[in-house]
Design goal:
Blueprint: H1 2-35, E1 45-50, E2 60-61, E3 74-75, H2 78-89, E4 94-100, H3 108-122, E5 127-135, H4 137-143, E6 148-157, H5 170-176, E7 179-185, H6 193-196, H7 202-227, H8 231-239, H9 246-251, E8 257-258, H10 261-272, E9 281-284, H11 285-291, E10 302-309, E11 312-313, E12 322-323, H12 324-336, E13 340-349, E14 351-353, H13 354-368, E15 373-382, H14 384-387, E16 394-397, E17 402-404, E18 408-414, H15 416-423, H16 447-472, H17 476-482, E19 487-489, H18 490-496, E20 501-502, H19 505-515, E21 522-526, H20 532-570, E22 575-577
Parallel strand pairs: 1-4, 1-9, 4-5, 5-6, 6-8, 10-13, 10-21, 11-12, 13-15, 15-16, 15-17, 16-20
Antiparallel strand pairs: 2-3, 7-18, 14-22, 17-19
Length: 585
């Protein structure tokens, strides 16, 4: 009996402590949420935009933000930041912007969107000052719209041109006796090259060189306009590696001066009419989003804005990817909602499951019969990301968006040698027919099975081409000539007929409103915001799982880790996916 009471009271104590902590947490969050209503923007405020923070397409809410020392409940998404900058342009409380440009975790399309909004803000006459201890090229692309750019005395600007590198695993797989059995359609569909080649094929080298040159030419052109320089001279500076120090960057006209951050803040103090550096009212984008009504709209009509970001996967997926079933449901909701007069899809995806892409294409085809459908491409909308969008009424892309990659592939590893010769593990079994256990990763495919898989890949590629040809109103032969798995920049995609107009999400929204003949409207976003309990539990799960994995691997290896997970999930499935992860150095 004594033992019983011992465990009983221990369990009771644990339950009491848990309940107490829960109460404290809920009271804390309730108080923090209530405090959101009290956020006030002081006079002479300066917006603070840190480019080192990854900017997602849709705002990421973090109910634990205030408990971790941050005053932000959410990191605004790309569209939020654009609208906030539009609002701040005419906000008398905002004097200017401090742009932290020490690093940049965002893609070309996102940078272009933010850069365009900053240029518009600057046209108001308000100041933008950019500072970074060492300014990489991705950050400089955004920062060069600033009125003044400064760097640390021991810093500088990374000015060496763009480079692209691939990792090839064929030798490692050979040593491990793992045979990747590969099936693909499209001579430029190089997603399988790391597993079947030891170096780039001529086709992949060609497409990579053209793509990189297009991106670099745009970067130099925009820099030349902002800094009143000559593009050819900017290229020569990189090719000769002449920017080796902060002083070199000043002398070349890339930046305006060399300062410590406190000296930069002193200049901001003068420009913002603040009494002292400590009295400067720096306002993060997250805090500004809490304080101002930048999302205001009018009327009863709605435009649905659906964010599609991440790998395309079968099923519901999760917050980190595009689950085909879940996104079909969002599109269906928007289609059946009488208040929704038009649909805008924001895509930032290199593709994934061919089946999920086809299903989302079908749902958009149904929606297009009822109301206008407009697509906005972000950093990348390639392969499956393009598949699902090709039938829209209008497609917008940035000049440096990565798109196309019209091609498919499938990989089935044969690990018989690895298990048998490396681990001493063998397999045996029985089956009712010759294909009952097909495909298997522990024995090679027969020639007949290989023929079946290649036929499946070719069939899906033909369907993909048909969707593109019909959606973009071109012959299948023309779609095939610009397909073959090849990737293009948004600027080239215009001339090829894959994209209709250069522009961002704001332009896509205006286009949708015009097609629906709307003068006033409100925006209904999908995925919808979670309730407070879902946000707390979801944020906790993300903090414990995703964040810890990211910290363990680091940003570079985390990308490889997610790619491996994607490959593991796609074994034996036909994929409409971009041929590589684009990491520009």
């Amino acid at each position: 009996m004594a033992q019983f009471f011992k465990y009983f009271f221990a369990a009771l104590l644990a339950l009491f402590v848990f309940a107490l902590l829960t109460v404290f947490l809920l009271f804390g969050i309730a108080g923090a949420v209530a405090s959101r209503e009290d956020v006030v923007i002081d006079q002479h405020s300066v917006l603070y935009l840190d480019l080192s923070k990854p900017i997602a397409e849709q705002a990421k809410e973090d109910p634990f933000g205030p408990f971790s020392g941050s005053d932000d409940f959410a990191q605004p998404g790309v569209f939020d930041i654009v609208r906030l900058l539009q609002f701040a342009k005419n906000d008398d409380e905002v004097e200017g912007i401090y742009l932290k440009a020490g690093s940049n975790a965002n893609g070309f399309g996102t940078n272009e969107e933010i850069r365009t909004a900053l240029k518009d803000f600057k046209s108001s006459g308000k100041f933008i000052i950019a500072y970074g201890e060492v300014i990489p090229q991705q950050a400089y692309h955004v920062a060069n719209v600033a009125g003044k750019i400064y760097t640390h005395p021991k810093g500088g600007v990374d000015w060496r041109g763009f480079g692209l590198q691939y990792v090839f695993f064929k030798k490692a797989l050979d040593r491990l006796e793992i045979e990747p059995q590969i099936f693909y359609a499209g001579k430029f569909k190089s997603a399988t090259e790391p597993f079947r080649e030891e170096e780039m094929t001529p086709a992949n080298e060609l497409q990579s060189r053209v793509l990189l040159e297009d991106l670099y030419t745009h970067f130099l052109h925009e820099t030349a306009l902002s800094r009143k320089k000559d593009s050819a001279e900017l290229r020569r500076l990189a090719d000769s590696n002449r920017i080796r120090s902060a002083l070199d960057a000043v002398n070349a006209g890339l930046i305006d001066g060399i300062k410590y951050e406190d000296e930069v803040k002193e200049e901001i103090r003068r420009l913002s009419n603040s009494k002292s550096i400590d009295k400067i009212s720096f306002v993060s984008m997250g805090k500004y989003a809490q304080a101002v009504n930048y999302k205001r709209g009018e009327g009863t009509d709605r435009i649905a804005l659906i964010y599609a970001e991440g790998n395309i996967v079968d099923g519901a997926g999760d917050a980190e990817n595009i689950g085909g079933d879940r996104f079909r449901n969002y599109i269906r909701k928007a289609r059946l909602d009488d208040k929704v007069r038009a649909i805008v899809i924001r895509i930032n995806s290199g593709g994934g499951s061919a089946m999920a892409s086809e299903n989302m294409w079908r749902e958009l085809e149904l929606a297009k019969n009822d109301k206008p459908v407009v697509i906005s491409f972000g950093d990348v909308a390639a392969s499956g990301g393009y598949y699902m969008a090709c039938n829209a009424d209008s497609i917008f892309a940035q000049p440096n968006t990565i798109t196309g990659s019209i091609g498919v592939f499938s990989i089935i590893p044969n690990m018989q040698g690895f298990f048998g010769n490396k681990l001493g593990v063998t397999f045996d079994g029985v089956e009712t027919g010759p294909y009952a256990n097909s495909p298997s990763i522990v024995e090679p495919l027969s020639e007949t099975e290989r023929r079946f898989f290649q036929q499946d890949v070719d069939s899906i590629y033909h369907t993909f081409l048909t969707r593109v040809a019909n959606g973009r109103k071109m012959p299948i032969a023309a779609a095939d000539s610009i397909g073959q798995g090849r990737v293009w920049t948004g600027k080239r995609a215009i001339s090829l007929g894959l994209v209709d107009r250069i522009g961002g999400l704001v332009d896509a929204m205006h286009s949708a409103a015009g097609l629906a003949k709307l003068k006033t409207y409100r925006i209904r976003e999908y995925p919808e915001k979670l309730n407070i309990f879902e946000r707390i539990t979801g944020a906790y799960k993300n903090t414990v799982e995703t964040k810890s994995i990211k910290e363990s691997f680091g940003p570079g290896f985390y990308g490889i880790y997610t790619e491996w997970l994607s490959i593991k999930e796609s074994i034996g499935k036909v994929q409409a996916k971009m041929p590589f992860r684009l990491i520009i150095r």
